[in-house]
Write a structure and sequence with these properties.
The protein has helices spanning 10-24, 26-46, 51-68, 70-80, 87-91, 98-126, 136-141, 146-167, 170-176, 181-194, 196-214, 221-239. By secondary structure, the protein is an all-alpha fold. Helix 4 (70-80) packs across helix 9 (170-176) and helix 9 crosses helix 10. The longest helix has 29 residues, at 98-126. The protein is globular and about 60 Å long. The relative contact order is 0.19.
């Protein structure tokens, strides 16, 4: 794999290209956006009274987010090839690469389990000094819990950064090229090592937009979710040199 030369404006270009794809297939994009919004609502409703598990499960959703965006990535791939995106191919796009996708999901699951174990250790270490709060907002806003929040945030940033580095181009690559999960993850890590600051900016934009989308009761995910899914394809196409990518939609070997 050959990594392109990247500039500071490239992440904004990827977002703009994602917005164009949304306009090209609005119904499909909003359908996926509704799915993301429903997941956020279910997460909030089911875990409102257990903040420690809410934090863990929210972390897991962030880890598995790239996999959930596969349908949108496939839609952008179709747009680039001059084809009209259709729902069924977008929902089943993972099937030809099912073995690699399953292995990559397994890698993310292992990372999530390590993250969850580390989070429980942090809770245990700070359990005696934390002020008891009945809600997640109370836990976050109480000044007595700042040492815990700092430790949890640092630990979460470490795992989230590694997950992002492994997956920033891995999922689009699995759909676009006949590679295995390990190769895709290592290629993603290599891209991050070659252009750490540009991809750090990309990761910061993804995080910021996701957090802003969650503020109005998660309704922002209706638009932000599809935008980031489409933009992920263009990030992959911008990071992997065109001579090394395969934009045409050819069937993968089983």
């Amino acid at each position: 794999m050959s990594v392109c030369t990247l500039g500071w404006r490239d992440p904004l270009r990827w977002l703009a290209a994602g917005a164009r794809d949304m306009r090209a297939c609005p119904a499909l994009s909003l359908g996926f956006g509704a799915l993301f919004t429903a997941v956020a609502w279910l997460l909030g409703l089911s875990l409102r009274s257990s903040p420690q598990y809410a934090l863990l499960l929210a972390s897991g959703v962030m880890l598995l987010g790239p996999a959930l965006a596969m349908g949108l990535i496939q839609a952008s791939r179709s747009c680039e090839a001059g084809q009209r995106p259709r729902l069924r191919p977008c929902l089943l796009c993972w099937w030809p690469a099912r073995s690699s996708v399953a292995l990559f999901a397994g890698l993310l699951l292992v990372l999530e389990l390590l993250w969850a174990r580390s989070a429980l250790i942090v809770f245990a270490l700070f359990a005696d000094s934390m002020a008891p709060e009945p809600s997640l907002s109370g836990l976050l806003l109480d000044p007595a819990n700042r040492p815990f929040l700092a430790a949890y945030g640092a630990m979460g940033a470490l795992f989230a950064g590694f997950a992002f580095a492994c997956s920033v181009i891995a999922v689009p690559m699995l759909l676009d090229r006949p590679v295995d999960a390990i190769t895709a993850a290592l290629s993603s890590l290599r891209a991050c090592l070659e252009h750490p600051w540009v991809l750090l900016l990309w990761g910061a934009l993804l995080t910021l937009l996701t957090l802003l989308a969650l503020l109005p009761a998660g309704l922002g995910l209706l638009l932000v979710g599809p935008l980031l899914g489409h933009a992920s394809w263009h990030a992959y196409r911008g990071i992997v040199c065109p001579a090394q990518a395969q934009p045409e939609l050819q069937p993968r070997p089983h």
